[in-house]
Amino acid sequence: MSRWEPNARERLVRAAVESFLERGYDAVTVAEITERAGLTKRTFFRHFGDKREVLFAGQDVLSGLLADAIAAAPASATPIEAVSAALTAVETAFDADRREWAQKVRQVVAGQPDLRERELLKRAKLRGAMASALRARGVPDPSASLAAEIGGLAFTTGFARWVEPSNERGFGELAREALAELVQAAAALG
Amino acid sequence: MSRWEPNARERLVRAAVESFLERGYDAVTVAEITERAGLTKRTFFRHFGDKREVLFAGQDVLSGLLADAIAAAPASATPIEAVSAALTAVETAFDADRREWAQKVRQVVAGQPDLRERELLKRAKLRGAMASALRARGVPDPSASLAAEIGGLAFTTGFARWVEPSNERGFGELAREALAELVQAAAALG
DNA sequence: TCCCGTGATGACACCTGGTGCCATCAACCG
DNA sequence: CGGTTGATGGCACCAGGTGTCATCACGGGA
Lengths: 190, 190
Description:
2 copies of one chain form a homodimer.
Chain A: H1 8-23, H2 30-37, H3 41-47, H4 53-56, H5 60-72, H6 79-89, H7 96-109, H8 113-136, H9 141-163, H10 171-187
Helix pairs in contact in A: 1-2, 5-6, 5-8, 6-9, 6-10, 8-9, 9-10
Chain A binds a DNA duplex through helix 3.
């Protein structure tokens, strides 16, 4: 491993979010973050593709978790059941630490168009991963896209409720609940 | 109006897309675009918030058109019927010139993550505008979000088919067709 | 006719995000 | 003990984006 302080990436993340919370996202330069972390600007961009990514890098594993869970669902499962299983599977990644982190990120992202744009990109990747996994199961394309879209909406809704300070319930429960509401609404559409 | 050449913005757009098609998006600097248009870098950023926006600025009116059409739909219309009316309403903006433009943009955007991100942002704004307009009609929230999401998917699908070189049909027809397929798939979900 | 306000542009300096390139240094390996 | 590897430092450099002031043409009013 590394012979310096072996947690350079983590130090950068901490330094970044602390600085952002103190003074706002765009008032903080990358040079200030790296100085706070005891590193250099060049190292920052070796760990993160750009300045925004330091806030969203953790989301990249979710796509894989969702896709794997959809692939692992029993062959008899409907698309929505597979999506539900996927929402349950990612719950393991959503512990108390992650919740605290999400609350900080939400605070930093609020009212920052650049960051909201990146957030949307990550959500789109989640939907895309779910849609691909569903197609790999043999679900034809209008249904696969639709189920992935609904799954993404359930994820977003469940996540928003989970992050809420007054919430006491788990992510999986909230997301499945949101999914059930959406399926019910879908049935009442026509 | 302007006393110079009164079409500065249009000249910038033309110069930009021509340069992008010739040499690729990121090989072209803003200074080169403005030089080609006979203007300066500073003027470019007075017309467009950033370099990407020169390709997507035209999409901003669509949100308004969709929202207005949803608001103008008869009170008896279901959410999906209102969305269908909205897709029909924006057809007026999709003439042959726009189609040619969209084909060029698609070519430039292909494989350019920055530009795909901006494209996703614009699509998200469309969905958001539709969802808000539906809520303003009194549609409660799981249904409003869902209908907007389905409408966005229908828009995307219809648009992709409309831009296809082999296509001969109009945007409204294609989008409504995609919407009908999605509604049918939604009914078969549960 | 003259003058003044207005709005768009030019010109310039400046900052910061982001990259290429090479040096450095610790760990590991034979 | 010497070579390799992998992460970091240091530096120059480019390009996107902004603040600020000057400029210039047009329209309107006296």
